[in-house]
Amino acid sequence: MNSSDQQMNSIAYMEPKLYKAAEAGNIDPFKDLPTSLSELLTPNKNTILHVYLGNQSREPESTDFVDKILERCPPLLLQANKKGEIPLHLAARYGHSNLVRVLIDRAKALPTDLESGVTEAKKMLRMTNEEQDTALHVAARNIEAQVVEILTKEDPEFSYSANVHGESPLYIAANMRFDGKFKRHEENRKKVIDEILRNCKSVEYCGSHGRTALHAAAMHGDHETAGKILERDPSLTKRTDDDGWSPIHYAAFFPKLSHGVPTVKVLLDHDVSAAYIVDSEKRTALHLAVTRRKWAVVRTIMDTCPACCELVDSRGRNFLHYSAITRKGHFQFSRLISESEKLKYEKDNDGNTPLHIFASLGNYPQRRLSSDWRHADKKMCGLNKQNLSVDDILVGNFPEKKVIPSI
Predict the structure, then answer these.
(1) d(Cα 143, Cα 321) in Å, to the nearest integer?
(2) In Å, how far from its chain's centre is CA 40?
């Protein structure tokens, strides 16, 4: 026998009639088998319970098949497939809440481990697959609110830690968003979040790339979820991701225009100092809001925390510098500069004031500077490090690319 023949002979498979019986939930072919039911495996090491649970498009009306199979072969309850999934993972994924209860009840009937003192039911609830997902991770990802309720109430003391991607169940739910025709999914997503926050005594908030569930809520403009999370842990406003972005950075930069303002307000209501947090390039949420031309967010931050406008990034630029560079923000720059008189003379690391930058950006700014600002204003800006004044830039007497680097 050659090596390829040996490899073929080593592949596990399930007789077609048994596979079809498992799919259909037909117990009869399994009653008098000479081999153990735990030895009936597909190539991916799925047992007959995996096959059954994975082929039920709707929640089964009867739990008889699972009950009778586990009576004949109790080890199937915790037997994992090739991906490390036990039957509870599949029941959670497909929202089979009645089968989730059956599996938990079966586990509760098993004797408690005397050494650890942990019941078999809790051991099962805490078991992870190859990506370190528990059944709760899986249920949260598939927005199965009823399953989430069952799992969190069964083991409220356990803190569900991050999977291999750094995601906790709460982060997974907070990082999802459904709009329009998916309204029902969005309602279920919010129920998932509510069940986790309500039932878990110790909540883990972590997510991928150093984010938290609050970052995720802020990114999607979900001010309701942000508020609920902050009621549990107000300190999350100060947690930063791998790039130094706090939740308010996300709220200022990512959501649609209509969603950013309420989320920023919620964050500032819980912690006004959030407006002063800087990222790895020393940018505040105000800087980011300007780059995205989110003027309502800019106004909200300035009204709540007026002093934060003095903060500069790693290149010495305040928010007016950013507004000047934002080409489509020319009209807003004209309004903002009148409200931030002292900032229009502040120089960045290249010696440019916001007016130096504004002067370089085409016909409209040049007309505004020529007609609306007094000659004295331009003189008071002084010279940049290339010894250029605002007037020099207005007449085009400079190498533009050297004067105005991009944001």
Answers:
(1) 44
(2) 39
3-class secondary-structure state, position 212: strand
Distance CA 263, CA 216 (A): 11
Long-range contacts, 20-25 (Cβ 8 Å, 24+)? 22/48, 22/49, 22/51, 22/52, 22/55, 23/51, 23/52, 23/55, 25/52, 25/56, 25/60, 25/62, 25/64, 25/65
CA 407 centroid distance within chain: 26
Q: Could you give the CA distance from residue 275 to residue 193 in angstroms, rounded to a whole number?
A: 26
Calculate what percentage of the chain has a pLDDT beyond 90: 69
Determine the 3-state secondary structure of 278 from DSSP: coil
Nearest alpha-carbon partner for 227 in 174, 303, 304, 159 = 174
Decide if pLDDT at 293 tops 60: yes
Say whether 50 sits in a helix, a strand or coil: helix
C-alpha 5/C-alpha 230 separation (Å) is 60
Residue 3 has pLDDT above 70, yes or no: no
CB proximity list for 114: less than 8 A, separation 6 or greater:
none
Q: Which of 41, 128, 115 lies closest to 78, judged by CA? A: 128
Q: Which superfamily, per CATH, for 1-130? A: Ankyrin repeat-containing domain (1.25.40.20)
Retrieve residue 203's tokens: 């909540």
Question: How far apart, in whole angstroms, are the C-alpha atoms of residue 403 and residue 203?
Answer: 50
Q: What is the DSSP letter of 242?
A: T
pLDDT in tens, 340-388: 878 989 999 999 999 888 888 766 666 666 655 556 677 788 999 999 9
SS3 89: helix
**220 phi, psi to nearest 5 deg:** -95, 5
Q: Which residues in 13-39 are b (16+ Cβ under 10 Å) and which e?
A: ebeeebbebbeebebeebeeeeeebee
Query: How far apart, in Å, do the first and last CA atoms of the chain sit?
Result: 68
One-letter amino acid of 248: I
Residue 137: closest CA among 202, 89, 185, 197: 89
The percent of residues above 70 in pLDDT, for the chain, comes to 88
Mean pLDDT of the chain: 89
Tokens 């930069």 correspond to: 253
Residue type, position 64, single letter: D
Sketch the domain layout of the chain as residue ranges. 1-130, 339-407
For residue 10, give Cα distances in angstroms to 1, 42, 44, 241, 270: 13, 12, 13, 47, 60
DSSP 206: B
**Helices 183-199 and 145-154: crossing angle, nearest 10°?**
10
